[in-house]
Amino acid sequence: MHLSNRQLYYQHLAVPANVPEALEIIKAEGIYLFTDKGEKYVDLVSGVSVSNIGHRHPKVVEAIKKQVDSYMHLMVYGEFIQSPQVQLAGKLAENLPANLDAVFLVNSGSEAIEGAMKLAKRSTGRSEIIAFKNAYHGGTQGALSILGNEELKYAFRPLLPDIRFLAFNNFEDLSQITKKTAAVVVEAIQAEAGIILPKLGYLKAMRERCTEVGCELILDDIQMGFGRTGKLFSFENYDFIPDIITLAKGMGGGMPIGGFVSSKEKMNLLHSQPTLGHITTFGGHPVSAAAALASLEVLTETDLIQQADKKGKRFADAILGHPLVKEIRQIGLMLAVELINEESATQAMAKLFSNRLIVDQFLFNRNSFRIAPPLTITLEEVDEIIKTVIKSLDQIKE
Question: CATH number of the domain at 59-301, please?
Answer without folding.
Answer: 3.40.640.10
